[in-house]
Specification:
Blueprint (H helix, E strand, L loop, with lengths): L1 E6 L2 E4 L4 E9 L6 E7 L6 E6 L6 E3 L7 E6 L4 E6 L8 E8 L16 E2 L3 E6 L1
Parallel strand pairs: 2-11
Antiparallel strand pairs: 1-3, 3-8, 4-5, 4-9, 5-6, 7-8, 9-10, 9-11
Length: about 130
């Protein structure tokens, strides 16, 4: 069981950077697979990045690869999303998510596979 709280969103200009944090409470955080998702106005929630329990495996949505970096610090019960070279199309509410199961293949990209979610943090990128 894990409770998640995101922070670090805000308003930035195109080309700027933000670092999102996801603070977790509960037990066995280090055993959970984690992901970041985002939802833009009028659109469905979409996959952004994934990191496995140890941090040894990461995956990114194509449009953010090379710009965003997902990481975690299990000792601090925290996960992060470093976002660089932000674009207006990155504007969305960003959510962190966790699941106690191993997510292979396409499962890691589907929001419905994750059991635990934060409340979301708004990221707005101006052009």
């Amino acid at each position: 069981q894990v409770q998640l709280v995101e922070s670090g969103g805000g308003l930035v200009q195109a080309g700027g950077s933000l670092r999102l944090s996801c603070a977790a409470s509960g037990r066995t955080f280090s055993s959970y697979n984690m992901g970041w998702f985002r939802q833009a106005p009028g659109k469905e929630r979409e996959f952004v990045a994934f990191i496995n329990w140890s941090g040894g495996s990461t995956y990114y949505e194509d449009s953010v690869k090379g710009r965003f970096t997902i990481s975690r610090d299990n000792a601090k019960n925290a996960m992060y999303l470093q976002m660089n070279s932000l674009k207006p199309e990155d504007t969305a509410v960003y959510y962190c998510a966790a699941d106690p199961y191993v997510l292979y293949g396409s499962r890691r990209y589907r929001a419905g596979e994750y059991d635990y979610w934060g409340q979301g943090t708004q990221v707005t990128v101006s052009s």
